[in-house]
Automatic annotation (TrEMBL):
Protein name in UniProt: Major facilitator superfamily protein
Organism expressing this protein natively: Schleiferilactobacillus perolens DSM 12744
PROSITE patterns per record: MFS
Keywords: Cell membrane, Membrane, Transmembrane, Transmembrane helix, Transport
Classification via InterPro entries: MFS, MFS_dom, MFS_trans_sf
Source organism, top-level taxon: Bacteria
Segments forming domain Major facilitator superfamily (MFS) profile: 10-402
Length: 420
């Protein structure tokens, strides 16, 4: 079993593997999207690929939790990594033999990758509290967020270079290399023995048990609903960032790329700050500050002048938007990890992920008609005003406002091996 003197090496070794596996996976994802763009020149096809990426998170997430809670998490991670590698290998081989591959195979490969990610995210998040002391969970969540932001910065640039310099089949094979490295580091990671759910899987009963457990913790349940509404509000604006640059500010595609990088840099620095200093004793203020940063960024972005000065200010606001995101995501995940037993975390995270993933596409459906009728900048104003209302509701709900008043006495979690 891991001890306080070895947990850092054990944990960071595992996450190094996951970081490299994740960045190769994102490089391949971008390369496949650009392949679709070049081959089809169809916005409909790109939208279809995006929707396919959402489907497993919406429909499969609730069923993933019971599997995670009843099986060996290490082998689940390795198995899903190998599934991703197999999909990439098959696609690359078909590409080498036939010099191209049918579009349906690209969509199938993207679906398999998204399916694997639907398993990997809650599995990793349920593993983390078994390796990390409870008082470090918020900082670790911030560090993980920073790592993911680095991936978001590096992956598009590297994918662009590789896509232009090499055959797409060679780029796809990066997924195999990343999966092997991630599986190898996971294989040598020492996971503490933990009680897991015995007996056969009964999906609906297990989901109902997870839902009942989530509902019992009123603060986390209400905060999850707030997070879902928050996602519903900001997702439409997030989807039209390139259009905001190219249409509203009459900019170029490289200018749109600058906006994406600025946002990712903000997220990275926010994650680094939380990883270094945490989110304070009462983390509800960090969550509220995150929502407030989105509200201010949205409202002011929507009323900027349509010139280069407005574009520069848009980037500054966009930086603070990105900076604020980890101050919601990291404390929220840490609260869940602290308050639920590790053997139940899979289904809890699966349910919360489903609510978040369901809210995203619903917001995207509204984005097009609103932007076409009122202008793309109106989506940012709606995001800002809506975020203010969400933040106000957070402070008005007693269960949410006082969620951190007794952090040392979690409702559903066993005493951690690292607790003194």
């Amino acid at each position: 079993m891991a001890t306080p003197t070895t947990w850092r090496f054990n944990f960071y070794r595992m996450w190094t593997g996951q970081f490299l596996s994740g960045i190769t996976s994102q490089i391949v994802q971008y390369a496949l999207l650009w392949y679709l763009t070049v081959e089809t020149k169809s916005a409909t096809m790109i939208s279809l690929a995006t929707i396919i990426g959402f489907l497993p998170g919406i429909f499969i997430s609730p069923f993933v939790g019971p599997i995670i809670d009843r099986h060996n998490k290490k082998w689940l991670m390795i198995g899903t990594d190998m599934l991703t590698a197999l999909a990439a290998l098959v696609l690359a081989v078909i590409g080498f033999v036939g010099h191209s591959f049918p579009l349906w195979m690209v969509f199938l490969a993207m679906f398999v990758r998204s399916l694997a990610q639907t398993f990997q995210y809650p599995t990793l998040q349920s593993i983390t509290p078994t390796l990390v002391p409870m008082d470090m969970l918020t900082k670790i969540s911030g560090q993980i967020g920073a790592f993911q932001s680095v991936q978001m910065i590096i992956a598009p640039a590297v994918a662009g270079v590789l896509f232009g310099a090499f055959n797409i089949n060679y780029v796809i094979l990066l997924d195999v290399i990343g999966a092997i490295f991630g599986s190898a580091t996971m294989l040598i990671t020492k996971l503490p023995e933990r009680r897991k759910q015995d007996g056969p899987i009964h999906f609906w009963q297990d989901m109902a048990a997870g839902w009942a457990l989530l509902r019992r913790d009123r603060g986390i349940f209400q905060l999850t609903l707030i997070g879902a509404v928050f996602t519903l509000i900001f997702m439409p604006a997030g989807a039209v960032y390139p259009l905001m640059t190219t249409q509203y500010f009459r900019g170029t595609v490289p200018m749109a790329s600058v906006v994406e990088v600025v946002f990712s840099v903000g997220m990275m620095l926010g994650g680094i700050w939380i990883g270094w200093r945490g989110a304070g004793k009462n983390r509800i203020y960090a969550l509220f500050g995150s929502i407030l940063s989105v509200a201010i960024s949205g409202i002011f972005s929507g009323i900027l002048s349509r010139d280069f000065t407005g574009f520069v200010l848009f980037n500054i606001l966009n930086f603070f938007f990105g900076l604020g995101v980890p101050f919601f995501n990291a404390p929220f995940m840490a609260m869940i990890q602290e308050r639920f037993a590790p053997e139940m975390l899979g289904r809890i995270i699966g349910l919360t992920s489903m609510l978040m993933n369901l809210a995203g596409p619903l917001g995207l459906v509204a984005a097009g008609p609103i932007a076409d009728r009122f202008g793309v900048n109106m989506l940012f104003i709606i995001m800002g005003v809506g975020s203010l209302l969400v933040g106000a509701s957070m402070l008005l709900l007693p269960a949410v406002r006082h969620i951190d008043d007794h952090p040392g006495t979690p409702l559903n979690r066993e005493k951690s091996d690292f607790d003194s």
